[in-house]
Amino acid sequence: MKAVAQRVKKTSLSVDGELISEIPFGLTVFLGIKVGDTKSEADYMARKIANLRVFEDENGKMNLSVKDVGGEVLLVSQFTLYGDTSHGNRPSFTLAERPEQAEPLYEYAVSALQAQGVTVKKGVFGADMQIQQHNDGPVTVLLEI
Question: Which of 11, 28, 78, 116 is an active site residue?
């Protein structure tokens, strides 16, 4: 499982021009699920995201988590994180889990993150999503298990 976590001031997600999700500030997290990932990896990733210290404390040091600052998480399924371009310029997605297995694990990851005490908004699994975000920093962290 891979995740790209970006600290944001605001993010909105739309499908076909309809606003689906929006967070005022926090983390936009793109989550990639690979073949063989399980609930164990989702639990680990949820704990890591919830406790990732990328927000500044009173001394300007990145020492606070999204929970500490009362932020929200927009969790977006992103199979393209497993795009392999080592054999050409067109990505191969053979490492990405099939939608039939990935979608329930994505939904489980949402629940696991909520169980960490974080407000979570979602994308629409498998949809063509348009995402507008106002990055903060920018601060972008790659997570992988």
Answer: 78
Active site residue 80: yes
Angstrom distance (rounded) from CA 51 to CA 17: 33
Q: Domain residues for 120?
A: 2-144
Over residues 33-81, the pLDDT tens digits come to 999 999 999 999 999 999 999 999 999 999 999 999 999 999 999 999 9
Q: For the chain, what is the domain count?
A: 1
6, 30, 55, 79: which one is catalytic? 79
Question: Which H helix or E strand runs over 119?
Answer: strand 119-122
What is the CATH classification number for the domain harbouring 96?
3.50.80.10
What are the tens digits of pLDDT across the range 5-37? 999 999 999 999 999 999 999 999 999 999 999
Phi-psi region of 90 (alpha: psi -120 to 50; beta: other; left: phi over 0): beta
Out of 80, 94, 130, 140, which one is annotated catalytic? Answer: 80
83, two tokens: 């795009």
